[in-house]
Design brief:
Its cofactor is Zn(2+). 42% of the residues lie in helices and 21% in strands. The chain is α+β, with helices and mostly antiparallel strands. Among the domains are: 1-184, Immunoglobulin-like; 306-438, Orthogonal Bundle (Neutral Protease, domain 2); 444-533, Immunoglobulin-like (Sandwich); 729-858, Peptidase M1, alanyl aminopeptidase, C-terminal domain (Zincin-like fold, Alpha Horseshoe). The protein binds (3S)-3,7-diaminoheptanoic acid and zinc ion (ZN).
Amino acid sequence: PPVIRREDYQPPAWLVPEIALDFTLGVDATRVVSRLTVRRNPHGDGAALRLNGDNIAPLGVKVDGVAVNDWRLDGADLLIDLAGDAHAVEVETAVNPAANSQLMGLYASNGMLCTQCEAEGFRRITFFPDRPDVLSTYRVRMAGDKAAFPILLSNGNCVAQGDDADGTHWAEWHDPWPKPCYLFALVAGDLVANHDSFTTMSGRKVDLNIWVRPGDEARTHHAMASLKAAMRWDEETFGREYDLDLFNIVAVSDFNMGAMENKGLNVFNTRYVLADPETATDADYDAVEGVIGHEYFHNWSGNRVTCRDWFQLSLKEGFTVLRDQLFSADMGSEAVKRIEDVRVLRSAQFPEDSGPLAHPIRPDSYQEISNFYTATVYNKGAEVIRMMRTMAGPERFRQGTDLYFARHDGEAATCEDFVKAIEDGSGLDLGRFRLWYGQAGTPQVKVALTHAGTTATLALSQAVPVTPGQPEKQPMPIPLRVALFDRESGRHGGERLIVLDKASDSFTFDGFSAPPVLSINRGFSAPVSIEADRSNADLVFLAAHDDDPFARYEAMQSLVVRHLVAAVGGGLSPDDRAAGRAAIGEAFAAFLADGALDDLMRGELMILPSETYLAEQLLVADPGAIHAEREALKAWLGHALQAALIALHDRASAVPYSRDAAARGARKLKTQALIYLAAGAPEEAARRAIAQYRAADNMTDRQGALMVLCGLAVPEREEALADFHARYHGNALVIDKWFSLQAGSLHPQVLDHVQALAGHPDFTMHNPNRVRALYMAFAVNPKGFHVADGEGYRIIGDLIRRLDPINPQTAARFVPPLGRWRRIEPGRSAMMRAELERIAAAPSLSRDVLEQVTKSLG
Ligand code: B3K
Ligand code: ZN
């Protein structure tokens, strides 16, 4: 497949200021007439009009009202030579939404029709310059059977509608804001809305609707509350006001991603809309709030200011992720949100950055852009912008974002435009900081603290690892929030922000009569990996005393990482092992008993570093050994702290259900306590888990209990699984949980379970949520995926081959777990690689899978 390069960018030869689309809707056949007003771009190269297409054929082409046939096809694109500088071009196409299993373009989902155009789905509907720097105002007319499609929606405002005699009806929509075609959307179906309204800061009333299938209305209240909170928050925090009189959200059950920010008509995966206490966990509630916020925030960061080309994807995604993170932090616990975000970064982005698919947040080339909607572009992209905010401070950062929006409103901008606006608006010098956009790889920072007289000296050095296509790296500015604690008082004399902008540097701190304890990268101020030679005692000290909650969590994590890495390497004598466990146990016991901690934070501190993150610490990892050591530590803690864990579970179980922070904290603890008990005292855990399951009046407790039972070979497991399935039969999102919990479990027969579930009547390859529920839960379950005989790899390899012809975008998402082979011990490594080779040898692979597999082998 051809390689698209960032440096080859050329402005479009033709602009399309206006488009009118006319849809005659049908589930098996929809006809589309597209009328474009095209104008030659003075900055273009004077070439023919190129309209991209994908899997469509032109049924008729007119230029200035006259049918022509001197058009030609170049691959899938339609080329039309035009004599003048301005023309009207009309193209007719037909598509079959029911046959569209890729879920890109116009497709059918449960009898309704909907679209997904980002990144390149619009070209599967009609011929168009499908690139984000061509902005048009849209008029959309749709007509169709009124019984099948009582609701007809598109972007902007509905300007006219009517009924026809033959049982059909029609509607016309107009979106006044010019937009690229990836933000176009259409929805037609039998939907009901939760209606509400929001009054903007300038006093305009906006109608809000969340559209769902009849019967789901009662589960939309949290989404609506989140939407209104997001609208207010963006006004207050970023000065951004909504710009239409109507905002529609539609929930769709067949969807490749989480949601899509189409202008005025966001389309959502049902899983990020529907929530009630009976069917959604606290984490699900948080995810709904976060994704509703994310898509809403795109109205400015993405829609009003869009991307010039897809290499700039992080311009909208990194910035919008940062915005949704700050929003969620303000809605709940800032400390807990930060920890969760770092955990996602470390388990999803760090491995990406150190593997064969590593790319900078602004990639230099791609074959299939869908493969670049990654944790790097999204989450590391957010971290990079967060560093600018940390260095500027929130007020000056806001001056930068104000300038960015003012300067580029209505434009298709670049990452460089963003950095320049932050620079000009905030007064920061971001000269070398721009390297963060171009260099892939997680910087490794080495830290040593020495003490002499009354001075502590912090010596730092950095190295950015080699990544594919980037053999040489330059040092980057790394902002580190640092505090030095006095061992006696347990306090520090103020935090300092230092910026390491060279390969190595040192910083001095005066006024310490004794060697202080170092707290560094507080708040995770930079997305780097820190290598510091700190004693267990110092880490235990920080885990107990650090006033930065992230640093406290981090000290705990470091303590565990260090112990487990040494254990896995076989370098622990029995005495060392006992000492390491004792230090961890001491820290655990301290925060379990710490009355000053809230339970949500206590629950975070209880979570051990993931096996993926542990594997990242090793050049070559043995997943079996990592799993065994981590489980052994859990069992030791569960056993050693059994009384405290039981007391915790009892205390938390007495808290009645509510959505407030204290009750959510209690629920988090209940499940965490069960997890440790399951490892250290399985009978006690099984008793408690089935009791929690039976008594549950909410999904958090029920799912937590079922998750723990799923990992135990006990009769209560079957009872709970059968009850769960019967109770929620027909509720797709909850049945997804039923699949995930089994596929992600610690049960010794997890592989057999996965294979049986693949043949379950509720399983289908055509619904991405269901595919992910079974297979992604399995692919990220180290116990199952890395089983020593390689069967886990074969399961995922088979899945990729079978799913690719149906849904290549989703199939490609399963390649990265296999792509880790170079960093895995030789036996498994060879089997992972062989699996990739089997995939590569399959006839006619999609561009999506081919790119990921080739790069993973390369
Ligand atoms: N912008 C969409 C991503 C859609 C990508 C489809 N390949 C979701 C989001 O980030 O908000
Ligand atoms: Zn986004």
